[in-house]
Write a structure and sequence with these properties.
There is one protein chain. The protein is an alpha+beta fold. It has two domains: about 190 residues, Aminopeptidase (3-Layer(aba) Sandwich); about 170 residues, Aminopeptidase, CATH 3.40.630. It is built from 14 helices and 15 strands. The radius of gyration is 21 Å and the shape is globular. This is Peptidogalycan biosysnthesis protein. InterPro entries: Acyl_CoA_acyltransferase.
Length: about 375
């Protein structure tokens, strides 16, 4: 076995020319990384790891460093005790992986190298970044790795033994069926109750026209797009970061054919939008936004989900990754939950021992009922 080595970089401008040779994941390729770096949240820095076998690139990974202040994390009136604790919270987090995504987007590697050896190097690199951060007077309190599915979790835990495994909400993934050639085929596969619900949602959204925006139009409508995004962000219970105003512009500039942004217009007013990223045969649901006052009246969010499904069917994708929020409504359109895991380590050994207990105090999983909209799916699920 040939020994592996790694190099650290702090900018996409420094990355080796062969970086995109490993094209397994659009979210680790130059175009996406450039867009992210050009539109970083103000509390985030990025590091890149290149793994080599001799002089050949055989792996790559992303690490994000986030500065967290408690009152900026919980946005929706935490309990008084939690609020008091959060006001004292001021920590730096180092994460192997991408906090803006759900799923396995932390690293990729050549199939001819040993994944465990790659993971050992990534652990070494993560510790080096911790030392760099200390010199920059940004001492790291929490180190994490995200996200992994069950089969990957076993391998990662072999290397990161001192880290604590945790799970949060499941990733909601919609699988497209080969026999669906149109949105009507999708509706025909539904039980009557859910087909009626979909048609009711379409009726409520009459007068709203959805269309894809090109770069020029995104520039023109960017203020409205950003305000709609903030509407959703500010209604969230928890968020580690806020996108800057140029995020959607940069995504379209760097990924003109892979990044799609669709606006929902009511007459001449933008009332909703959604974004998607094409990642090989998969679609990744990106950030979205809507007018909170019109949400219930026009069922804006549900219609955005149907719009994404329509796109996936029309262009023959295998799946649509809808991330881990609003699980019940996503299951009602056909998405299935996939359990995801992360690993956490506190750099204080004593705190690390009680980390799981602390985590459970601050994080309460959302209670939800899994829906089953299709005729041929296990009837034991709630319908």
């Amino acid at each position: 076995m040939t020994h592996l080595s790694y190099s650290l970089f702090t900018s996409v401008q420094e990355l080796p020319q062969e970086w995109d040779r490993l094209r397994k994941d659009e979210f680790l390729n130059l175009a996406y990384l450039t867009a992210q770096e050009n539109a970083l949240p103000k509390n985030m820095d990025v590091f890149y790891i290149a793994v080599y076998q001799l002089d050949k690139l055989v792996g790559k990974a992303i690490v994000q460093r986030v500065r967290v202040q408690g009152e900026e994390v919980y946005r929706n009136n935490p309990s008084s005790m939690k609020e008091e604790l959060l006001n004292l919270l001021n920590i730096n987090i180092l994460c192997l992986g991408n906090l803006k995504l759900t799923g396995e987007h932390a690293y990729v590697y050549d199939e001819n190298v040993d994944e465990l050896e790659v993971l050992s190097l990534l652990k070494e690199a993560l510790n080096e970044i911790r030392q760099i951060s200390k010199k920059e007077k940004l001492p790291i309190q929490l180190m994490g790795i995200k996200d992994f599915y069950q089969d990957s979790k076993v391998r990662v835990e072999k290397i990161f033994k001192e880290y604590q495994a945790f799970t949060v909400q499941p990733n909601m993934v919609f699988e497209f069926r080969k026999e669906w050639k149109s949105f009507d085929d999708y509706l025909d596969a539904m039980r009557t109750k859910y087909r009626t619900r979909a048609k009711r949602a379409f009726k409520k959204s009459e007068g709203i026209v959805y269309r894809e925006l090109n770069l020029e139009e995104i520039l023109r409508w960017n203020n409205s797009i950003y305000q709609l995004y903030l509407n959703v962000l500010n209604n969230a219970d928890f968020s580690l970061y806020q996108l800057p105003e140029n995020y959607f512009i940069e995504m379209k500039k760097q990924m003109p054919n892979k990044f799609k942004l669709f606006g929902g217009f009511k007459q001449d007013t933008l009332v909703s939008f959604y974004s998607i990223i094409e990642n090989n045969e998969q679609l990744e649901a990106g950030f979205l936004g809507y007018d909170a006052e019109l949400q219930k009246e026009n069922q804006l969010y549900l219609n955005l989900l149907y719009q994404m499904i329509t796109y996936g069917i029309d262009f023959g994708f295998d799946s649509l990754d809808l991330s881990r929020t609003a699980m019940e409504i996503k299951s009602s359109v056909g998405a299935e939950p996939i359990e995801t895991f992360g690993l956490l380590k506190h750099t204080n050994p004593w705190m690390n021992k009680v980390l799981k207990s602390i985590f459970s105090k601050f994080y309460q999983p959302e209670e939800w009922i899994q829906r089953s909209p299709f005729k041929d799916v296990d009837s034991s699920l709630s319908n």
